[in-house]
Design a protein that fits this description.
The complex is a heterotrimer.
Chain A: E1 2-4, E2 15-20, H1 21-27, E3 34-37, E4 47-55, E5 71-73, H2 75-82, H3 107-117, H4 129-132, H5 134-168, H6 170-178, H7 183-224, H8 235-261, H9 265-269
Parallel strand pairs in A: 2-4
Antiparallel strand pairs in A: 1-3, 2-5, 3-4
Chain B: H1 3-13, H2 15-52, E1 57-60, H3 75-83, E2 88-102, E3 109-118, E4 125-129, E5 137-140, H4 142-148, E6 155-161, E7 172-181, E8 191-195, H5 196-202, E9 213-218, H6 224-234, E10 239-242, H7 243-252, H8 256-286, H9 289-298, H10 302-339, H11 356-382, H12 386-395
Parallel strand pairs in B: 3-8, 5-7
Antiparallel strand pairs in B: 1-9, 1-10, 2-3, 2-6, 2-9, 4-7, 5-8, 6-7
Helix pairs in contact in B: 1-10, 2-7, 2-8, 2-10, 2-11, 8-11, 9-12, 10-11
Chain C: E1 23-32, E2 39-49, E3 54-58, H1 65-72, E4 80-85, E5 88-89, H2 95-105, E6 106-109, H3 121-131, H4 136-149, H5 165-176, E7 183-187, H6 195-210, E8 214-218, H7 222-226, E9 230-235, E10 238-244
Parallel strand pairs in C: 3-8, 3-9, 6-7, 7-8
Antiparallel strand pairs in C: 1-2, 1-4, 4-5, 9-10
Helix pairs in contact in C: 3-4, 3-5, 4-5, 5-6
Chain lengths: ~270, ~400, ~250
């Protein structure tokens, strides 16, 4: 708890702390200022610290919308500040210890080793932690459900559009049938056209998505004052989108063309 | 034949195209409707849940939310003092902890652990058995009962975990007095509750008179704001939070994601719908330019042919819009089931909540879509050069 | 009466002795601006169409005959000259007024028929009447009469796709007569029909004219033109000659 900030007459050599950018902006603090911090709600036991620097907090999606007012202290200073009165030194504890390995691929083996050597201590590799966190698994499913509905709506419209586009070629197709071209030949031609249009459309869609990615990220980063990335078009995402869009586009063209070619040439060619 | 009848006949002329247009609008409209429900759903639901508990004020030691900040010392005394205010109907002190409950011969079950003091009003609803009396009695929720096979009358060992400090607290034996429903339970959550004295005893006997929150219910003839002012004047060192303020804080915090995503998806779906209806109508109009020019030559006014196109748009969007409501309701139920699996979301809270205002906004947006989507094809027919079109049709 | 009562007794000329012309064009021209330079489709044409006239306009392709027809029908505005319809200057009319004029006073028959494919023959003929706010009872009576007049009373419920070319043109003629116009304009009415069917259409148009409707036909079919009492021959936007038949 920040008890007082700014023009505080500093004790001799107060310990240094780092504060988050948001705290610095909210309380109009800057490097070199002296602040008083307390762990108790009533401010008792406050100590003075000098602000050695201002840092940008690591973006945390769980704290989206929150203003990150954080202070970082040296561990001994934090333990000293939060120790219960009357408790002897050395009885403090920490919740987490972050370990950076020389070889990150050793993470699982290291975690097993720690667990075996220190019962009561749980060690977990950091990679994959985000994916296993409950809210993000649920949100991923939610986004997938939205994506499925959007694809269904797109498919319906795509079918309507291809029906119209193929219908515009009705007299031409009718004449081709009347002069003897087989249905298969015309279908192949329409299929090739469908592939070209669907591929071009998918690529255009990707370009649009990349543009939108930049706009959406910039907007939400400004809105929530965060460095979080909200939308990311990865190669895998792009590949999945193309893999869905191209077959859908081609299928829609073929379905529309097949519906047209079922009719006889004379009725197609007649105005 | 008026413009609407004419538009209907034009659509029926191409049943496959018209049906697909309507279905497409229905799918997009369903998503749009759901996003409108989502934009306020969580807030409405949370507000309703808070109000259903019967308490409209929450008093805490700091401005942190209940259970996330320090304990209120002398909480029972302070709750009594609050309860005697003229604008207050009742006040109870509530403390939160965790516990492992274990029936003899069975595995322990991790539960949340509540202790309540104050009036007879308890923030839970009894389902079976009876409420707690004085002494070592607990009520449990259905999940706890099912997993531990505990029923009213059974004895159970409770090992409490009451603070961040590592403590080896002695277990306590309780008797299950009843099974209750707790309003803020998550779907899979296990909860047990007892008196605040018994919880303090289970927590080692320290901080006997401390609580995480004092819940206050104002009298019917007093406003929530008046009660808040009275409590703040009585206990200026504490923080008073009304239900509305609590909801507002949720809204600014984690709930904001859903408001934002609903805005983004609403924009995307509307743009999508406008674009595709525009293309549908434009292609349809372009295929009928000769007919339209002939009608103009026969004396149909510019506004009549414009009205025909607008009515076509209204029919497609209107038909799709009507269909989108039951589709949207189904989709909302499915999406709600997905989102309710987010850890920590109470079972009584829903993300998609129907409000008449959402229906009104949905209708307005669809009307706007129909009009905007028709603008370009309307421009084509309004500016159609009659003679040139007739000539082109002959040449074509 | 099927034919148009275009000129009422009180619409006689200032002298009261002769009826007003249906259409009077004075030195009308139509120039189209093109990227390669302006093209004069009609140049300095003057003509008068009296009630009951039967006029054919012929000439080679591109001579401006359709453009002239469109100007006479108030579909296209002249770039120069004046055009009077029953004594009123058309150029001062708003678009809405010109539409009303076409709806009530002028009928059009097109080479391509332009029937609405999603409506039956009955509905195609009824449509202009409903647009002109004719009562339902009157529309029913009039539509029935018109379809009988063109010999398609038994095909009223058929859509255009179920009719032959000649039958479609007959429906188009019935539609053009729906609001009893005083002037019927036909642009190549037999252009898409075989000789025999074209003869039938020509005979029908003669009958319409005989019943009182002024008729102007654009055609490059000499046989059709010969049936008219006046034949204008156009070339390069001008009237080259005018011949009359008894």
């Amino acid at each position: 708890m920040l008890v007082a900030a700014g023009a505080v007459r500093a004790a001799e050599n107060p310990a240094s702390v780092l504060i988050s950018r948001q705290l610095a902006e909210g309380e109009h603090l800057s490097v070199g200022d002296t602040v008083r911090l307390a762990a108790a709600a009533d401010g008792s036991g406050a100590r003075e610290f000098r602000i050695a620097g201002v840092y940008e907090p690591t973006p945390d999606p769980v704290k989206l919308g929150a203003v990150i007012r954080e202070v970082r202290l040296h561990l001994p200073d934090l333990l000293e500040l939060t120790r219960q009165p009357g408790m002897p030194a050395g009885s403090e504890y920490v919740r987490n210890i972050n370990v950076a390995l020389v070889d990150p691929n050793d993470a699982r083996a290291f975690a097993r080793d720690v667990g075996a050597r220190m019962p009561g201590i749980a060690a977990r590799p950091a990679s994959g932690a985000a994916g296993s966190t409950g809210p993000f698994v649920v949100l991923e499913r939610f986004h997938l459900a939205i994506a499925i509905v959007t694809i269904i709506a797109s498919t319906v419209f795509l079918l309507a559009l291809t029906l119209m586009l193929v219908d515009e070629r009705r007299p031409t197709v009718g004449v081709l049938r009347l002069i003897g071209l087989p249905t298969r030949r015309i279908l192949v031609q329409l299929f090739i056209e469908g592939v070209l249009i669907a591929t071009a459309g998918s690529l255009f869609g990707l370009v649009l998505a990349l543009g939108a990615e930049g706009i959406i990220n910039r907007f939400f980063q400004w809105r929530y004052d965060t460095a979080l990335v909200f939308v990311r078009v990865t190669p895998e995402v792009a590949a999945v989108c193309v893999a869905i869009a191209v077959p859908l586009g081609v299928s829609a063209t073929v379905v529309a063309a097949w519906a047209l070619l079922r009719r006889n040439g004379l009725s197609l060619a007649r105005r | 034949m008026n413009a609407m009848g004419f538009a209907w006949r034009s659509l029926v002329r191409q049943p496959a195209r018209a049906s697909l247009g309507v279905l497409g609008v229905a799918a997009v409209g369903a998503l749009l409707f759901d996003m409108l429900l989502l934009s306020q759903g969580l807030v409405i639901s949370m507000r309703g849940l808070l109000e259903r508990t019967g308490f409209d004020l929450r008093v805490t030691a700091t401005d942190a939310l209940p259970g996330q900040g320090p304990l209120i010392p002398d909480a029972i005394t302070r709750a009594d003092a609050i309860a005697h205010l003229p604008s207050v109907r009742s006040a109870i002190a509530l403390r939160f902890a965790n516990a492992v409950v274990q029936k003899e011969g069975r595995r322990g079950q991790y539960t949340s652990f509540q202790g309540v003091a104050g009036t007879n009003t308890h923030p839970w609803t009894m389902l079976r058995g009876r409420d707690i009396a004085n002494g070592p009695e607990i009520v449990i929720n259905e999940n706890t009962s099912r997993r531990t096979q505990l029923q009213p009358g059974d004895r159970v060992v409770v090992r409490a975990s009451c603070s961040d400090n590592k403590q080896a607290l002695p277990p306590m034996t309780f008797t299950v007095s009843g099974v209750a429903e707790f309003p803020f339970d998550t779907p899979n959550g296990a909860t047990v509750a007892t008196s605040i004295d018994m919880l303090a005893a289970a927590c080692g006997g320290n901080e006997l008179d401390a609580a995480d929150v004092i819940m206050v219910a104002s009298r019917e003839n007093a406003s929530t704001d008046a009660a808040a002012v009275d409590v703040a004047q009585l206990l200026p060192e504490l923080n008073v939070l009304s239900n509305a303020e609590a909801v507002s804080r949720f809204e600014r915090g984690g709930f904001t994601y859903f408001r934002q995503i609903s805005t983004v998806l609403t924009t995307v779906t509307l743009s999508f719908a406008v674009l595709l209806i525009t293309v549908l109508l434009t292609v349809s109009v372009n295929q009928r330019l000769g007919e339209i020019a002939a009608l103009r030559a026969l004396g149909f006014s510019r506004w009549r042919v414009v009205a025909d196109v607008l009515c076509e748009s209204v029919l497609i969007v209107g038909g799709g819009g009507l269909l989108s409501l039951p589709l949207g309701a189904l989709l909302a139920a499915g999406l709600d089931r997905i989102l309710k699996r987010i850890p920590g979301i109470p079972a009584e809270v829903h993300f998609f909540v129907f409000e008449p205002s959402a229906l009104r906004v949905h209708l307005l947006l669809l009307v706007a879509t129909a009009i905007i989507a028709a603008l370009y094809p309307i421009r084509i027919v309004a500016r159609l050069p009659i003679a040139a079109t007739l000539r082109d049709e002959v040449i074509g | 009466m099927i034919g148009g009562p275009a000129v009422q007794a009180d619409e006689r000329g200032p002298t009261g002795s002769a009826p007003l012309c249906v259409v009077e064009a004075s030195h009308v021209s139509r120039v189209f601006p093109m990227p390669a330079g302006p093209v004069t489709a009609v140049a300095d044409v003057s003509l008068r169409i009296a009630p009951g006239d039967h006029l054919a306009i012929r000439g080679p392709s591109g001579c401006g005959k359709s453009t002239l027809l469109h100007m006479l029908g108030c579909v296209e505005a002249p770039t120069a000259g004046t055009l009077l319809f029953q004594g009123k200057d058309v150029s001062i009319l708003s678009d809405r007024q010109r539409s009303l004029l076409r709806l009530r006073q002028i009928g059009f028959v097109f080479q391509r028929f332009f029937l609405l494919p999603m409506l039956t023959a009955w509905e195609n003929v009824e449509l202009p009447q409903s647009e002109a706010a004719v009562s339902k009872a009157e529309r029913r009576k009039r539509t029935g009469e018109l379809l009988d007049y063109v010999g398609l009373g038994a095909r009223a419920d058929h859509r255009p796709s179920e009719l032959s070319g000649g039958e479609m043109q007959r429906v188009a003629i019935a539609r053009a007569l729906a609001n009893r116009p005083g002037l019927l304009l036909a642009d190549e009415p037999t252009g898409e029909l075989d000789r025999a069917t074209g003869e039938q259409i020509a005979a029908l148009l003669d009958r319409v004219n005989a019943d009182g409707t002024a008729l102007v036909i654009v055609t490059h079919d000499p046989a059709l033109a010969e049936r008219s009492t006046r034949v204008l021959t156009m070339r390069d936007g001008h009237i080259e000659s005018e011949a009359g038949h008894a």
